[in-house]
Design a protein that fits this description.
The chain is of the alpha+beta class and 390 residues long. The protein folds into 2 domains: 169 residues, Transferase(Phosphotransferase) domain 1 (Transferase(Phosphotransferase), domain 1), CATH 1.10.510; 155 residues, Phosphorylase Kinase, domain 1, CATH 3.30.200. The protein contains 11 helices and 8 strands. The longest helix has 18 residues.
């Protein structure tokens, strides 16, 4: 899912209109895309195709402090391809600067030296355990390209221009995903800024350079383009699936209970995100008394907000028995109690009829039974949304 920011001068409701149209415009049959982070860790190899001769003067970070991707708990320098600003990738793409990094990737702004166009190149992991993310992302793009090009959801997806591999002396084969960008004046400014005021760097073992990410500037006249979805390393296509997905605080209960799940987990996910935007805080805290992450406390908060789940739901999994007894009552784990919380008392940004409509809207997504959650097309027709959709 894309990171979508609040535009200059845009109020919360206008932003919600834009976000919901983006997040919910796809039909319920589309793949689950619950991971909000850009992904993949990069390779450590020593051969790049093309001319890598151009260099820039680089300000230095200190060696003592971790920077950028080094701060990831699972960071391993041997997984990272040593991309350098000024490199030519695949004999075609000159690296202009680093746009950012995520859990398992870094993303670079590049210029196509053949037609002077801009692309964003995502350099992905060589780790076998992470390669499934790359394959899922590529399969997602292949699947989307086979669908109806006139479907309105296509407008909200970042397209794939192509892929290529870079093979070095240690035979590393990363996948690189190029994504389109639009406002070339912003990109020209990015390129100029990198040349005039280079990003901070840290040299590792005289071989690897860790670059600081550079933010793209604001578009002229504060005009923002259409937000799009991107980063599909955790996308699943159709049907039911299993396994851990979603950031912890946004996990649907069936994910926490290790049950099979389908696209309805995204509906739960959207509800938690909408709450964040309106209340400027998380709906779920999911930590214990020592402020350590706790799935049991997470479920206890769900019970506080929604009441006990139906017995039918509890009987769908084995892990549910750790916190609910055979009659469906809460027994917790480790003495965990249900906190004194309610959705009504937690809403502070709205009041009156608007508050009631908002709560009904949120409750229609935060259902224990996945099949009872509203589908995306139904949410767009909800009374709370009706006044915002033109």
């Amino acid at each position: 899912m894309a990171a979508i920011g609040l535009a200059h001068g845009e109020n919360g409701r206008a932003f919600m209109d834009r976000l919901i149209n983006t997040a919910l415009s796809l039909s319920p049959a589309t793949p689950t895309c619950s991971d909000l982070l850009i992904r993949s860790i990069l390779e450590d190899c020593y051969g790049l195709q093309g001319d890598n001769s151009q260099a820039f003067p680089l300000p230095k970070w200190t060696q003592a402090n971790h920077s950028e991707e080094e701060r990831l708990p699972w960071y391993n320098p041997n997984q990272f391809f040593p991309v350098r600003i000024g490199d030519i990738l695949d004999s075609s793409y000159k690296v202009l600067g680093k746009l950012g990094y995520g859990a398992y990737s870094t993303v670079w702004l590049c210029r196509n030296i053949r037609d002077s166009g801009f692309v964003a190149i995502k350099v992905c992991t060589r780790d076998i355990d992470r390669s499934a993310r790359i394959h899922r992302e590529l399969q997602f793009y292949e699947h989307v390209s086979s669908l109806n090009p006139q479907h309105r959801g296509q407008f909200f997806l970042r397209g794939l221009l192509g892929t290529f591999e870079i093979t070095g002396p240690i035979d590393i084969n990363p996948s690189n995903i190029m994504l389109t960008v639009d406002d070339e004046s912003v990109l020209d400014d990015f390129e100029r800024a990198e040349m005039e005021e280079p990003s901070p760097t840290k040299v590792i073992n005289n071989v690897r350079i860790i670059y600081g990410s550079r933010k793209l500037g604001l578009p002229k006249d504060s005009l923002w383009g259409q937000p799009v979805l991107c980063g599909f390393g955790e996308a699943r296509i159709g049907g039911s699936h299993s396994g851990l997905i979603q950031p912890e605080l946004y996990c649907a209960p069936e994910v926490l209970f290790d049950m099979e799940w389908n696209s309805s987990v995204d509906i739960w996910n959207v509800a938690a995100l909408i709450w964040d935007l309106f209340e400027n805080r998380h709906l779920f805290i999911a930590v214990d008394e020592k402020l350590q992450p706790s799935a049991t406390h997470h479920v206890a908060e769900m019970v506080a907000y929604l009441g006990l789940p139906p017995l039918e739901y509890i009987q769908r999994g084995e892990i549910t028995k750790k916190v609910f007894n055979e009659q469906g009552r809460w027994k917790g784990a480790g003495g965990t109690v249900i906190p004194q919380l309610s959705l009504e008392e937690s809403v502070s940004a709205l009041d009156g009829e608007t508050k009631e409509q908002f709560l009904n809207f949120i409750r229609s997504m935060l259902e224990w039974l996945p099949e009872k959650r509203k589908e995306a097309s139904e949410l767009l027709k909800d009374p709370w949304m009706a006044g915002a959709i033109l």
